[in-house]
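Run folding on both entries below.
>entry_1
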Amino acid sequence: MDHSEQEILALADSLADPVFFAEHVLGVEPWSKQKEILRAVQHHNRIAVRSGHKVSKSHSMAVLALWWAITMPDARVALTSASFQQVVKILWREISGMYRKADLRVPLGGQLYRDPSSGLIFPNGNEIFGFSTDQPERAAGISAANLLYIVDEASGVQENVFEAMEGNMAAGAKMVLTSNPTRMVGTFFDAFHSKSKYWKCIHISSRNSPNVTGERKIPGLAGPEWIKEKAEEWGEGSPMFQVRVEGNFPGQGDNSVIGLALATEAKIRWANASTMGPLRIGVDVARYGEDETVIQPVRGFKALEPVTGLNMNGQQVAAKVMETIERLKRPTDDKVYVKIDIIGLGASPADFLGVMDRAKDSGVVVRPVNVANASDKPEIYADLRSQLCFDLKEWFEAGGAIPDDEKLIQEIVAATYELDAKGRNRVLGKKAERKLLGRSPDRRNALELAIYEARPRRTIGGQQILM
């Protein structure tokens, strides 16, 4: 054996180490927790990583995908996530960028496509590609001598997708799951609990970030200032902090109306949510200087981006509502229903909208809502405010979607309830929520109003009667 052959064998042995590959082929320097993930794939078939935010999960998955596809014979890497948008905008963007930078240093070969469905294909047939969890049958039809599944945001992936992938695990495939641990059920949860003996489990808190520990400074990763900010904003004991900073499962209390998992799933499906259906507007008018007036448009099962403002009077709110309607209204929208909480300052914009010519011309129908009224379902809910919160939960369960809005999600998961003396559900009052959040839940309340299908009422003998 001549010297060049020895060098080739030595290099082959070195490339079997994903950390060596990252440093010498891709030109990236993994930090300690990244190294733990990369080397775990060398020695285990099932790896589950639960973590907080900003700890380079996607960067680690990009290294793994390229290492596997380039160094393994007859290799395929299949990428998926809770939504295909996650694959496109996060995983594939990370892989594509890393591949291009490395290719300038060490030509890697292969054909890189913009669409992750087409992926990255090498001359020997090895490939990296993405597939949608809307098509679980695609997961079942993947085969290769060396197959690696990478599942991002795995806590939100439906069980039929895991069932489809499981059939290929018998042939020696490997699977890496990464996620913020949002759900207390499913394959990802089980990997850390009832089935942990089958998985190599790795936990990364945002506090483990090298920017926090002092290991080294890496732009974009969690730092002590961010952690301090979130502790003050959410509270260290809150589900939001436990999941998104500590990387712990939320341990949701029995008295929460809407769990973090449900809200997170609604956020994930927002980009692809249907906008078929009428335009509806919910308006929550601020009562204090620091609170927001929120105008929340909803079309179909998609909550559109809200319009917010501070210290607006009734006429200004009404004008802003009309601007929102005129921007979003379609020719097919015969009527646009605007629902306004009229307790306190909400009566003023409702009155202005009721007499505005441009509102009448646009088919605007104002529905004043008093959330202190009796519920439409008085045998179940103590008041209308409680009903609206539970209606929002049902809307999420039916497919409702929300934009990526941390304030809104925090307000959603903050809602808790108790049973009153008649055994009905009563949601925590606004004063208590203000104490918990440091503000009024204006964004959630506006969304609740937007999706509320009010039943008409009449006043008979001094009492409001549902019609």
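>entry_2
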Amino acid sequence: MSKYNAVERLLEIQEELSALGNEARNLMREHFPGLAEQGDAYGAFTFGKSWNRYDTTLETLIEETEDYEEEEY
């Protein structure tokens, strides 16, 4: 697998994680609304991302692949 293909797959995984987080949020809202509110407050349904710009997440690592590729040349 090329680096380009790896990055493309990583982006797909990030999208899948986002969809799964939304699905989990919706299930919690439907069946456990109080817990869903708590989960939303703490970002429990946000997989691979963070509101804290200093956190290392899958999203930030994917963004850094551009810098990584530039360093190799």
